[in-house]
């Protein structure tokens, strides 16, 4: 295989590109890619393909064979030193005879966290850390958050018109976004551990919240419903056989409603109440205990407002359609009371813009 010149950043970019292929298949493990470079050329590459399968490094070593001896290994995350479902990667790297290892970032997992780098150096291998680290950190942001804070990464997603409406004043929203945008959302669902909506959205839209066609994962569908108002005849309840349904509620919900939903197969998760609804911080803590890595928050406006106020949202995906809806009573993506002054507005740390069909997708990191 030919490499992309001799620019080290190009080799690490390839490792990151390979790592991305594992999205939705490896969680709660990190996405990792590895590239073996000898004499300025890629001679082997690999990535972590699915949870429980061999890691990126042994896959790349197997692809390169004897060409590993004296070569450089570019890997998007520090190689591991601990036993899990697979053996540690560091001994395999040492045995393969690499002269140099370049890692994009240190592994935040306390079981590793610098030990891999130390053991490689003790074996006489030159180690460099930090090449394209910002890109590596962003790639594995869900893994990093779950590992360091015990919480899932939350992406809030909405589709809106040019004038910031998610539905008309009568509640009609089909379809604001274009078909390619909706296809992308189904892909995102198939990579997430859970899809979360508020009960208002469930009542208004009667959604399925499944990935169509199915993706790498079957996300749990979660409804934040403090009074357990979700009807047993809703599509969410009627399709429990296709995907799990969790109703996050409170002690204030009538027991007969909770029992009726449980009898249909829904998991009833009773959580503390906060600001007239379910405590979203408590919900995220529970999902973290379940090792859920990524939650896709799909609205509505009240739930998005509560999630932003609670500080649980990490990223926003806003699909903006070239349409004007109007209406002072039409829905917006973030409702609630809002801030009092513009100076109090929540600002994105970084953002990007790209075209998806007829729509513009704004991706913002908070």
Topology:
Layout: H1 8-20, E1 33-38, E2 41-47, H2 56-64, E3 72-75, H3 90-96, E4 100-103, H4 115-122, E5 126-129, H5 133-139, H6 141-149, E6 153-160, H7 179-189, E7 194-198, H8 199-205, E8 220-224, H9 235-238, E9 245-249, H10 255-263, E10 267-270, E11 273-274, E12 277-278, H11 280-289, E13 294-297, H12 301-310, E14 315-320, E15 350-356, E16 359-365
Parallel strand pairs: 3-4, 4-5, 6-13, 6-14, 7-8, 7-13, 8-9, 9-10
Antiparallel strand pairs: 1-2, 1-3, 11-12, 14-16, 15-16
Summarize the structure.
This protein is about 30% helix and about 20% strand. The chain is α/β, with parallel strands linked by helices and about 375 residues long.
Q: Name the CATH superfamily classification of the largest domain.
A: Dihydrofolate Reductase, subunit A
How large is the count of helical segments?
12
How far is the N terminus from the C terminus?
Answer: 39 Å
CATH topology of the largest domain: Dihydrofolate Reductase, subunit A
- Helical content (DSSP H or I, runs of 4+): 25-40%
Percentage of residues in DSSP E strands: 15-25%
What best-fitting shape do the alpha-carbon axes yield?
Answer: elongated
* Largest sheet composition: 9 strands, mixed
Radius of gyration: 23 Å
Based on helices, strands and strand pairing, what is the structural class? alpha/beta
The total tally of domains equals 2
Strand order in space, largest sheet: 10-9-8-7-13-6-14-16-15
């Amino acid at each position: 295989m030919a490499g992309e010149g001799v620019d080290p950043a190009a080799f690490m970019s390839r490792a990151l590109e390979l790592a991305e292929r594992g999205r939705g298949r490896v969680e709660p493990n990190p996405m990792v890619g590895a590239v073996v470079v000898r004499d300025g050329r890629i001679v082997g590459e690999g990535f972590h393909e699915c949870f429980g399968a061999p890691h990126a490094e042994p896959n790349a070593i197997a692809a390169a064979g004897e060409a590993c001896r004296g070569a450089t290994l570019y890997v998007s995350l520090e190689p591991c030193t601990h036993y899990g479902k697979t053996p540690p990667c560091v001994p395999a790297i040492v045995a393969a005879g690499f002269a140099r290892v370049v890692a994009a970032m240190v592994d935040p997992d306390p079981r590793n966290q610098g030990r891999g780098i130390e053991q490689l150096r003790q074996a006489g291998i030159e180690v460099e850390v930090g090449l394209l680290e910002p890109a590596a950190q962003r790639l594995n942001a869900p893994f990093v958050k779950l590992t360091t804070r015990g919480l899932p990464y939350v992406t809030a997603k909405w589709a809106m018109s040019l004038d910031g409406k998610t539905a008309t004043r009568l509640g009609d929203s089909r379809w604001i976004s274009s078909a390619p945008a909706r296809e992308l959302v189904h892909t995102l669902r198939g990579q997430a551990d859970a899809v979360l909506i508020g009960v208002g959205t469930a009542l208004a839209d009667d959604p399925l919240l499944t990935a169509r066609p199915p993706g790498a994962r079957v996300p749990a569908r979660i409804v934040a419903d403090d009074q357990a108002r979700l009807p047993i005849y809703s599509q969410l309840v009627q399709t429990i056989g296709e995907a799990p349904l969790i109703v996050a509620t409170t002690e204030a919900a009538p027991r007969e409603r909770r029992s009726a939903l449980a009898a249909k197969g829904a998991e009833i998760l009773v959580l503390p109440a906060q600001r007239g609804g379910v405590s979203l911080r408590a919900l995220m803590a529970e999902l973290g205990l379940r090792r859920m890595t990524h939650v896709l928050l799909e609205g509505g406006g009240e739930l998005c407002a509560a999630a932003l106020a609670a500080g649980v949202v990490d990223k926003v995906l806003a699909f903006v359609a070239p349409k004007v809806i109007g209406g002072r009573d039409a829905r917006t993506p973030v409702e609630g009371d809002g801030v009092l002054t513009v100076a109090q507005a929540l600002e994105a740390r970084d953002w990007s813009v790209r075209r998806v069909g007829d729509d513009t997708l704004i991706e913002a990191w908070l």
